[in-house]
């Protein structure tokens, strides 16, 4: 099997998705450690990290979806959208996940990314507000260090976002 699907079958589509690059007042970005990946529950240096992201429901606008995803994944949507990446960014799942991840219906995801300013308090961030929890830990980091984290196969997307969202990584 390749990232297009099984031989003789039509290629698998990309799942529509939104991503949230959430900046605190210091200009740092929030990342969460995936609770379903190796290293979860261990020291903060372990595991796979990412920014909040998730699927877009039918008939849902991407800007509404990104706020819903924040509520579901970090327990708060205390954020203001500052901007959006001008292009949809796509990635393929690794070959081992094609046909398995997300019910085997997708080859990867195409994402609309948003830069948001967090206007809440850190104690409002609750990873247990939605079950199953997407993340088991979170932290604020400096934007340029994001691709250096273990972000798995999403590293190329994060490199683009670090470059293009750098103007948002300033103190408010």
Automatic annotation (TrEMBL):
For activity, the cofactor(s) needed are: a divalent metal cation; Mg(2+)
Q: What is the protein name stated in its UniProt record?
A: RNA pyrophosphohydrolase
Q: Which keywords annotate this record? A: Hydrolase
State one Pfam family annotation.
Answer: NUDIX
Q: From the UniProt record, report the name of the gene that encodes this protein.
A: rppH
Is Hydrolase among the key words of this record? yes
> HAMAP family per the record?
Nudix_RppH (MF_00298)
Organism, per UniProt? Nguyenibacter vanlangensis
Keyword presence, Secreted: no
> What is the uppermost EC class here?
hydrolase
NCBIfam families for the chain: PRK00714.1-5
The protein's superkingdom reads Bacteria
Residues annotated as domain Nudix hydrolase: 13-163
Map motif Nudix box onto the chain: 54-75
Report a single Gene Ontology molecular function. hydrolase activity
What protein family does this chain belong to?
Answer: Belongs to the Nudix hydrolase family. RppH subfamily.
């Amino acid at each position: 099997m390749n990232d297009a699907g099984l031989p003789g079958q039509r290629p698998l589509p990309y799942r529509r998705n939104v991503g949230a690059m959430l900046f605190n007042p210091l200009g740092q970005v929030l990342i969460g450690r995936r609770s379903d990946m190796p290293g979860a529950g261990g020291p903060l240096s372990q595991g796979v990290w990412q920014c909040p992201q998730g699927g877009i429901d039918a008939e849902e606008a991407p800007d509404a979806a990104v706020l819903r995803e924040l509520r579901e994944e970090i327990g708060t949507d205390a954020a203001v959208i500052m901007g959006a990446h001008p292009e949809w960014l796509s990635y393929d799942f690794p070959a081992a996940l094609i046909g398995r991840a997300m019910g085997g219906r997708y080859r990867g995801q195409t994402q609309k990314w948003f830069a948001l300013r967090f206007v809440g308090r850190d104690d409002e961030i609750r990873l247990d507000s939605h079950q199953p929890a997407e993340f088991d830990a979170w932290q604020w980091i400096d934007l340029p260090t994001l691709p250096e984290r273990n972000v798995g196969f999403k590293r190329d997307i994060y490199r683009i976002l670090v470059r293009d969202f750098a103007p948002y990584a300033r103190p408010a």
